[in-house]
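re: ur question from earlier - yeah i can do the single chain one, its not a big deal. heres the input i used so u can compare w yours
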Amino acid sequence: MSDGKNQKNHGSKNHDKDGHDHKEAPARVAAVASEPDSAGSVQPENMKRKDYERELRVLHGELVAMQEWVKASGAKICIVFEGRDTAGKGGTIKAITERVSPRVFRVVALPAPNEREKSQMFIQRYMSHFPAAGEVAIFDRSWYNRAGIERVMGFCTEAEVQRFLEGVALVERTMVESGIILLKYWLEVSQEEQTRRLESRINDPRKIWKLSDMDLKSYSRWWDYEKARDEMFRASDTSWAPWYIAHTDDKKRGRLNIITHLLSQIPYEPLAHAEIVLPKRQKKPNEDAPRQPMPQMREIPTPFG
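and the output i got, formated as tokens:
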């Protein structure tokens, strides 16, 4: 990827069997939905930061172009991020939102439900966060908590899980038919890499807040999560709202793959911008005119110069 022009050529549009326009994903995005290398094969080295930042800079430009199209067209985009603990959901969302407007890209990360919310229809508390025209809503975990952590950790009954799995596809079809572009990503991390990342949080004061008692309990239930994930996929991977799997043992490559794929799924085109010229500044006021005295202001210390 050498420049923004080349990056914009994600591929030509095609139509799925429901008639929705999509761009063909470029070859470089194949890793988003591919299986990891088989056992014994040589794994590529983690991407160097310099290379990552160069690629991300171009993608940030494309995300801004997408943002301007969303505002101008009134598009409604909903992006769901799910996955195992430490899979990199937060870092991916940060990479997506770093250079765009928080007034257009809204991140939704809901806390545990309160007593009133527990009495509601399960998806009800999420619906108020669905995007309106000109918005991109990004869910850092979502209504799929019911099929994942709530099920595995025993926070709901099996009957409640089955009701969710039976109804979620219909809810998402209604979302899509209302004009929402719905993208669902599952971030997959290996057991070995998850262990490494959790251990790195234990003695790092910058990351310790990420390590909760729930994370430790969840860590011990790898295969319960595996079974719950597979059943969730069977119930909710549909033609109108498919799941996309991203392997994120290399976080940098995973983020770039996800953002590139995301851009390929949105039918945006860069908008023409008028030439921008800074206006002249006003003239300095007459120094002879009386001025109110300034109060004594407090300046911060400058230990770094």
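The first strand starts at residue 13 and ends at 15. not sure if urs matches, ping me
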